Structures are given as C-alpha cells and as structure tokens.
Amino acid sequence: MINTNDLGIAIVDMQDLCLVRLVEKKRKRILGALEEFLERVKELDIPTIAFQLADNHCNAHLEHPAYQTVPSIKEKLPNGARIFWKSLNNGFTYYYDGSSPDITPNYYFHRKGVSRVLVAGLFAEMCVYETAIGATENNFQVIFCDELMEARNPLGLITREPFKNLGTYYQRSSELLQC
C-alpha cells in the first residue's frame, strides 16, 4: 500500500467517445477496474481530476453525452473532484475547465498538497503517457498501474518501459490502496 497523504489521481478520457474505440472485453475490464479503484479513492477522499478529451475548443459539442466522463466513473469521483477538458493528449498543458481560467490542474493539485499523481485511463500509449509527462513538467512525481489503464492497440501495451522510466509502475491496483 502506498502513502496517500500527498497523492492525487488523474483519470484520463473515460468517455464514450473513447471507450467505443475499444473491443467490448477491454471496455468492460477498464470500467470495472476504475470503478472499483475509485470507490476506495472516494472513501479516502484523495484529490482527483478527470480529464475529458475535446476535439476542439468549440463548446457547442461538449454537452453531448459522448464527450462527458461516463456516469459510472463520474459518480465515483470524490467530493471536490475537478473535471478539465483537454484539447490534446497532455491534460496538464492543453486544458480548460470551462469556468475559471485561473484554475489549472497544476494549481488544483498543489493547493491540495499533492506531489505525486497516479495517472490512469485511456489511451495508455498516448493520452495517459502524455498527461504523465505534463505532470512531471509541473514537478509532480507520477505513478502508473497496469490494471488502471488501457491501450488503444487491440494487443494492449507493446512495452511498459516508457512508463517505468517516467515514474513508479505497479502491476495491480491492490498494491496501491488495498482495493
């Protein structure tokens, strides 16, 4: 089990817009794993951000349900969790929350005393990884868990070395919060 005192959680692209790109078995697996994990995160009240992919900054389409974090994930977010839109792979660099330009992912996590961020969600080889790079560029240590991310590639992640080189890497979520 890891120390949660300075831990934050970043959930990336858990929207129907992205989930439909996965085969059903992978879709069910990642949803189930994150739903279970987020129950524990909510119990522990760990600061959490959900990043939602936006195709562009035209706000008209953002209200469509396909662009929203799926309800089964959204309802498990802890109280006070923030949702940020991201326009590219890196949620820490290319983001907005739709309300206040002064609130950034960096500001939100630092205000909550976070120095380590567990980055999870879709798509591991692109958005999860790039968001983790953005987190490190903002002076956060990053953590990954194989069970809490899914690759777009039907074969899964080809290599885990980039994740292991960037941060701390766990195979199972049970190693993190005793889910």
Please, could you describe this protein's structure?
- The protein is an alpha/beta fold and 179 residues long.
- It has one domain: 3-Layer(aba) Sandwich (Rossmann fold).
- The protein has helices at residues 16-19, 24-44, 71-74, 105-111, 124-137, 161-166, 174-177, and strands spanning 7-12, 48-53, 82-86, 95-96, 116-122, 141-145, 149-150, 168-170.
- Strands 1, 2, 3, 4, 5, 6, 7 and 8 form an eight-stranded mixed beta sheet that branches.
- Strand 3 and strand 4 (95-96) form a beta hairpin.
- The protein is globular.
- The model has no long low-confidence stretch (mean pLDDT 88).
Please give a quick description of this structure.
The protein has one domain (7-177): Isochorismatase-like (Rossmann fold, 3-Layer(aba) Sandwich). Helices cover 34% and strands 20% of the residues. It contains 7 helices and 8 strands; from the N terminus they run E-H-H-E-H-E-E-H-E-H-E-E-H-E-H.
Biggest sheet overview: 8 strands, mixed
The first-level CATH class is given as: Alpha Beta
How many helical elements?
Answer: 7
End-to-end C-alpha gap:
10 Å
* Helix/strand structural class: alpha/beta
Question: What would you report as the Rg, rounded to the nearest angstrom?
Answer: 15 Å
Order of helices and strands: EHHEHEEHEHEEHEH
Record field, number of beta strands: 8
| Percentage of β-strand residues | 15-25%
How much helical structure, as a percent, in the residues? Answer: 25-40%
Any idea what the shape is?
Answer: globular
Which regions have little confidence, pLDDT < 50, spanning 5+ residues? none
